[in-house]
Amino acid sequence: MSNERIWLSSPTMHGDELKYMKEAFDTNWMSTVGKNINEVEKQITEKIGCKYAVSLSCGTAALHLAVKLAGIKRGDKVFCSDMTFDATVNPVVYERGEPVFIDTEYETWNMDPVALEKAFEIYPDVKTVVVAHLYGTPGKIDEIKAICEKHGAVIIEDAAESLGATYKGVQTGTFGTYNCISFNGNKIITGSSGGMLLTDSLDAANKVRKWSTQSRENAPWYQHEELGYNYRMSNVIAGVVRGQIPYLDEHIAQKKAIYERYKEAFKDLPVKMNPYDEKNSEPNFWLSCLIIDEDAMCKQVRGEQDYCYNTERGKSCPQEILDKLAEINAEGRPIWKPMHMQPIYRMNGFVTRKGNGRAMTNAYIEGEVLDVGIDIFNRGVCLPSDNKMAPEQQDRIIEVIRKCFK
Ligand SMILES: *Cc1c(COP(=O)(O)O)cnc(C)c1O
């Protein structure tokens, strides 16, 4: 059998991407304006059901401008998802705000509304909440929205991983006041890079258009009254995105089939797949993950940059699974290490259902889980989820994982 690398999630091109890139070239719109940009903005607003979409250089830029729209200033605390990619929270710090992390719940692996409610008791002045949908699985949106409304807080939705996922039939990327998506190379559709800010506010969309193009005033010369950024998407990149949008649903169907296949194959193992609210949500299944039952975990220790574990009969751990996958040239990954565990954010606030809102290092007391993020990080692993993975390749991965528990 071929030993071709099986990726976690790699770009899947279809052909039209090149056509639209060439169109930009042939018409000489090799710039940050042009037809591809106009088209992708129109198509995304139609697909997602928002009024305005502004194309930017990346999802992180969209999050940065969302944080500016929310008016975050030096010292402002902002509640943020904890178990996510650091691009969700770094933009808060770009504006000298202070992320306070909210622990994770077990049902969708996203922000825990119970911990969020508690956070508002501890920090009643907070006015902004940044919520991500991990691995394409919508979080507990109704609960989070209700809590934010009650406390007069604005939601910034980080839908970078969840493009195309729905909650109660509504697309993610529409639940916040300011919403962000990404076309990074490993996302469900890609421009090789790129992102967008989505909003229903014309005023917000206009501000983002202005800020992202160096904040030029309407004058014959370069006139500046506000700080500007060079954050606009290239019309060439937009050509790639334009070629990809028609394939979003196909990619989701492929990812879902991969998830279902893993789920079926692991039925008799002491593991579960990353969960979602089957009644109310339809994820985009961007990454398939598993979590090992507590009593099937072998001993595993992780330092800041290294790890070790004991191989044990009938048991395994994420690092063993990752090592075994690497042996067959397949790319898995640990669960995104929670932000409150990151050295750069170790002094930031962290609110759990049971903690006191201060930074904490003890995840368990007398066997009881205090910190859901650490627990999922310890026991969870992201599996190869590339939508071009053949069933035979996935079978090999399944076989390797089954062996880990022998
Ligand atoms: C990828 C990602 C981003 C950042 O998007 P870029 O386009 O890479 O800047 C932000 N948040 C999450 C959760 C992501 O996965």
Architecture overview:
It is globular, with a radius of gyration of 22 Å. The chain has twelve helices and 19 strands. Helices cover 32% and strands 16% of the residues. The protein has helices at residues 16-26, 35-48, 59-69, 90-94, 113-122, 141-150, 202-211, 235-244, 248-265, 318-327, 372-379, 391-404, and strands at 52-56, 77-81, 98-102, 128-132, 154-158, 166-167, 170-171, 178-182, 195-199, 271-273, 281-282, 289-292, 300-302, 307-309, 333-334, 350-351, 364-365, 368-369, 380-382. The chain is an alpha/beta fold. The strands form five sheets. The protein has an eight-stranded mixed beta sheet, sandwiched between helices. Strands 10-12-19-15 form a four-stranded antiparallel beta sheet. The mean pLDDT is 96. Pyridoxal-5'-phosphate binds at residues 58-60, 84-85, 87-88, 132, 158, 160-161, 182, 184, 195.
Short summary of the structure?
The protein is α/β, with parallel strands linked by helices and 406 residues long. The chain has helices at residues 16-26, 35-48, 59-69, 90-94, 113-122, 141-150, 202-211, 235-244, 248-265, 318-327, 372-379, 391-404; strands at residues 52-56, 77-81, 98-102, 128-132, 154-158, 166-167, 170-171, 178-182, 195-199, 271-273, 281-282, 289-292, 300-302, 307-309, 333-334, 350-351, 364-365, 368-369, 380-382.
Structural class: alpha/beta
Shape: globular
Largest sheet: 8 strands, mixed
Mean pLDDT: 96
Unreliable runs: none
